[in-house]
Write a structure and sequence with these properties.
alpha+beta, 4-stranded antiparallel β-sheet, 6 helices, 25% helix
């Protein structure tokens, strides 16, 4: 059996921010603590443990190393939680804004149910009815813009897709005027967060070092095991722990590992009554 850390004595919070990019590292107990701070590639780096400054050199030792960024293992940790639409492992081809119409088909169904046949007591043609319906649909349709945010190498996948309502404040989306376009359709997307905490060297690291020395040649020949959808929850849990250990890092009294987290994003823009 591989022992599990019994006590987490304190938590390490490393945080930073860069122009146009945001990076942050979270420390976990039962709940997660978010922290956005300053730049990974600039001077003036702030590194704190429980609000006390420590040697910035330690920061470089705790960043994910090559074995911690093994794409195959990280993909297996996320499993079916990985969402290729909202996240990207590699740099997206288009980092700018992509705008499209957030069309709601229920609008046309609603307008058809109104059965518009006359205006001010005067009958209208079918063509005029369609013209009015199309105008109302276009008026009430909001535009949504997508852009990619780079969260840095403390997250995996590091690129997250965000949304913006294009015509939020420019004009009303209703007739009579009064309603505005706004973000809606909140959803959770999952990713991995690099988490560090103070700890003595775990026993499984010592055992792994001895095993690597004794069986290095044999380990290279072993085939990689795949995540099978029909695996039992217990087997999946054991494999998840093993993958997290394989990608973890221990240096200078700190243990770092990937942990599954979620991020809330808005998937659509809709016309509704809002207060600005």
């Amino acid at each position: 059996m591989i022992p599990i850390l019994a006590v987490i004595s304190s938590y390490l919070v490393l945080s930073f921010s860069a122009p146009c990019l945001s990076q942050y590292i979270a420390a976990f107990s039962e709940s997660e603590i978010d922290s956005r701070i300053q730049d990974i590639n600039t001077k003036g780096l702030k590194v704190k443990v429980l609000s006390e400054k420590i040697d910035p050199i330690l920061f470089n030792d705790l960043m994910p190393e090559s074995h911690s960024l093994h794409e195959g293992r990280l993909m297996k940790i996320l499993g079916d939680r990985f969402d290729s639409f909202w996240t990207s492992v590699n740099t997206p081809h288009n980092l700018g804004y992509e705008t499209e119409v957030s069309y709601d088909p229920k609008l046309e169904i609603f307008l058809d149910s109104l059965n518009i046949t006359e205006i001010r007591g005067q009958p209208i043609s079918f063509e005029m009815k369609r013209l009015i319906q199309n105008w109302l649909v276009n008026k009430a349709t909001c535009k949504i813009s997508y852009y990619w945010e780079d969260l840095g190498n403390l997250f995996w996948p590091r690129f997250i897709k965000k949304t913006i309502c294009v015509n939020t404040n420019s004009e009303s989306c209703s007739w009579p005027p009064g309603m505005k376009c706004g973000l809606s359709g909140p959803m959770k997307i999952h990713h991995l967060r690099w988490t560090c905490f103070e700890s003595e060297e775990p026993l499984y690291h010592q055992r792994r070092k001895r095993a690597n020395n004794l069986h290095k040649a044999n380990n290279k020949k072993q085939k990689k095991r795949q995540v099978l959808s029909f695996w039992s929850p217990d087997k999946r849990k054991k494999q998840l722990k093993r993958l997290i250990r394989q990608t973890s890092l221990w240096k200078k009294g700190f243990q770092c590992e990937w942990r599954i987290s979620d991020l809330s994003v808005s998937s659509t823009c809709e016309c509704a009554c809002r207060q600005f």
